[in-house]
Amino acid sequence: MKEYHKKDNTRGRIMLFNFEKPADGVRELMIVGNQFSYEDFAPHGISVLEEKDKVFLFVVVHRAEEDTVEKFEFLEKTLELKHLKTYKGTLVHLLNDVAATGHETFYTTESGYYRNYIGHILEQFIGLSYGHLLYYDGRDFIPVSEPTYMVNGITLSKDGRHVYTVSSPGKKFIVYKREANNRLKKINEVELDTIPDNPTIDPVTGDVLLGCHPIWIKIAKHLNDPGNESAPSQVLMLHMDKSGTNVTDGITELQSDNLELYGSTTATLYKKRMLVGTVCHKMMYCEENTL
Length: 291
Prior knowledge:
Layout (H helix, E strand, L loop, with lengths): L1 H6 L7 E3 L8 E3 L1 E3 L9 E10 L2 E9 L4 E9 L4 E8 L6 E7 L5 E7 L4 H10 L5 E5 L4 E3 L7 E6 L5 E6 L4 E7 L5 E8 L3 E7 L6 E6 L2 H9 L8 E8 L6 E10 L7 E7 L2 E6 L5 E4 L4
Parallel strand pairs: 3-7
Antiparallel strand pairs: 1-2, 4-5, 5-6, 6-7, 8-9, 9-10, 10-11, 12-13, 13-14, 14-15, 16-17, 17-18, 18-19, 20-21, 21-22
């Protein structure tokens, strides 16, 4: 995939989509700040924190030598991102996603230990449980979960009492309870008949949307050669009970077997409208009529 991006001169960007003006498409948010460098900038997981009259973004960033979490303030008047801070630590190896819990605190998923290609592939295919969840407590990163096989996306429940994450190759949706010290206790694990990628929350119901990959070999080939190999997309809705810990039902919100969309990773809802993202293809905007 690196060669594909290099050939197309792809660079990391953070984009804005306005659900109230879908016809406008997406636009790039320029980043301002003296301490920020666009060099080898590869943003990945993202979390939004609204605090008083301000909006902050926490973003997992892959760089050549290290992974970090970067904090930005969204400047609505100028449509810019002001870079505020870089978070790094000795426990950080291969980050994937982030879920903000406060102005200086967040959970993040450590997918694995090895950053090099061979080590990462071995972890995945041998089934090594080197991944886990980290919590940044305002001072440093601390491990807060048991080792997990290739932990991927992460989000908080609607009430903030639980953490939802997935093991992608393990095909599992995992529910953790947040303890008083922000450590996590696993209270549920749901096996899925698909490869989950990133969970997001329906802001109205608290149900969970999952961007998924229904056919493993297809997404593996697509990631290895995005320009020539395609992969189907799938979005699931997991209905949660009132406690937010148990899945009562699951339905398919999107199934793209005719390859309109390659490799869906995430979906987000707003007023019965849905935006679906992918690894390295395009985005799809849908107007929901079934929710």
